[in-house]
Structure prediction request, 701 residues.
Amino acid sequence: MDNKSSSPWVRILVVATLITMLVDLYLIFEFAPTERAMGHVQRIFYFHVPSAWVAFLAFFIVFIGSVGYLWKRDRKYDMIAHSAAEIGVLFATLVMITGPIWGRPVWNTWWEWSPRLTLFLVLWFIYIAYMMLRSFVEGEERSARFAAVFGIVGFVDVPIVHLSIRLWRDIHPSPVIAGGDGSGLHPDMKITFFFSLFTFTLLFFWLLVQRLRLEKSTVATSELKKQIAY
Amino acid sequence: MSDSIASGSQTAAIKVHGLSKTFGNQFALRKIDFELPPGEFLTIFGPNGAGKTTLIRILSTLTHASSGEVEMGGIVPSKEPDKIRRQIGVIGHQTYLYENLTAEENLKFYGRLYGVTDLDQKIATIIASVGLRLRRRDCVRTFSRGMQQRLAIARALLHEPTILLLDEPYTGLDQHAAEMLSGWLRELRSSQRTTLMVTHDLERGIDLADRIAILKKGRIVFYEKRENVDRSNFKQTYYKLVGDEQNTA
Amino acid sequence: MSAVFVILWKDLLSEFRTKEMVLSMLVFSLMVAVIFNFSFPPGSEFIQQAAPGILWMTLVFASLLGMNRSFVYEVDKGCMQGLMLAPVNRTAIYLSKLLVNFIFITIVELVVLPLFSVFFKLEVLHVAGQLALIMFLGTLGFTIIGTLFSAISVNTKTREVMLPILHFPVSIPIIICSVQATTAVLQEQGWQVLWGWCKLIVVFDIIFLIVAYFTFEFIIEE
Ligand SMILES: Nc1ncnc2c1ncn2[C@@H]1O[C@H](COP(=O)(O)OP(=O)(O)OP(=O)(O)O)[C@@H](O)[C@H]1O
Ligand SMILES: [Mg+2]
Prediction:
């Protein structure tokens, strides 16, 4: 079934993702130099930041899919939004897991109300609410409609949440968050970092395609049922 | 059969073509076609779950069809919904009444929404004619089911619609009120109003109808002019078409 | 436009008769305010610092309770369909519900705020104007969102739970800003700081009023 239903593009995507992932692992654990102050734990940065990027990307696609659905009323857009939301929640979770692992030795605390971590916590809640909404509404058309509205509201909210958290932190500065991520990266670190971003982006699209295919076959089954009923 | 369905050459008051509606993977309506000339009265019979309410909801712009076309008096409801909404009066399964408002206030509210002129005058008339004059200042909460139905009828007719869509309007009415409703409907028909009525009451349905349709599992299985229907026989016809199955659509 | 006021008139009339929404919000918020008081040691200094946060949480919880009701009336007897059958702009329905909710919550605030300042020993008279501004902007913010989401939650299986779950994460900026602005006023941090917070609430209000205006129709149209 795998080979028959997938287009050549999908197969290229699969292969490319697998290869870049292997290369990325090599870059992260062998190629990139060890950070002097933080040590090996800094390598988690190559997972942490790309995960954050992918989560944003996913939520943006939820937004696009939601607008598309309300506009065109085509199930396809809803499926894209739904799939992207699931993947987005997954990566937002990764951000919040890798963040504290990194932060524990560096900041000496498991949870720091840093602007970015707080933002992700809020994002996580928004999209968990999105998923809950989907499962608590009866009728797939209605559930798609409601989810689309919430997907739009949620995404529009992101910059405002970001601003308000930033402002809030400015007033109550956190104890020690010295040495921001981007400052003075070693060139090899930069290469690794950008390659990692690229890899995670590929991984995202691969997951999205897989998730969509799953959704499509579910729909195909119900279409078949409908035809039988007719 | 399609001959009898596509009849009038002038613009039909209600024209439905290839109308389908699905809920998930379940069909409620399957490619329905019919035309109703202006001023005529169509009665639709059908077992529970046949899709009658779904049809009325689509015609009254409350829900969108999955596919197919609808035209009412030359207007396509999905394109110009507000234009069609002014012209239709709907009685549905629910009464659409606010329980904490009095009968009068309910009518005032809906009358204002429709921009009815001379509202107080019209409310007084219609409330008297549905026999609720003495209870007009009471909250709807305190009304019996039949009284609420009477008020729902008043609500649907208040803005003098040209097309009536009635979903089981006899629900809960006593003999007297049911006779009254039949009387009004006859009167309205003679004043060139087009009516589509869904009912389970074969007697009353046939009495009023110009055309009769039977809906079964989302399909029109019977569509005839009244004069072509053998009244004494209709019950048998109906049961032959739909009644032999216990489970509905 | 007139449809907005027709629906508003109907809702006010109905509430005037039952007093359901306003009374339940009022009693609820007073109780919460009092109970919060017990989470501090008696005579604690913290209580004054925490007061703005407690005040806003109390108000948001109470309004969620109230806003949940605003569409229940419409849905339960099918009145929403009656509204949808009328030649009424769909956004008029939203605007009228927004106004209704805003009016009811404001009434509650007008009663709760003085009592709250007494319970929490806050000096509010000399900053009443500034507080009123924050109350207005903040309340508008979470009512805009709450009205939109209550139209959604009323159609879900778990009405009462769904609204807060949808509402809280999205309204976090409103809560942060309103609490901080209130703190700024009570601690007399000056107009500069206050305006910094209010600006963000204004942005939130405007953006979500626009978003709600365009999306509401999709919630109620089938
Ligand atoms: N909102 C809905 N979601 C899912 N299915 C629905 C919905 N509304 C109606 N249906 C289905 O569509 C079919 C037609 O329903 P409809 O209400 O039109 O029947 P009806 O002919 O009016 O029946 P009754 O005589 O009981 O009023 C039924 O099978 C019903 O289960
Ligand atoms: Mg029905």
In short: The first strand of chain B starts at residue 14 and ends at 23.
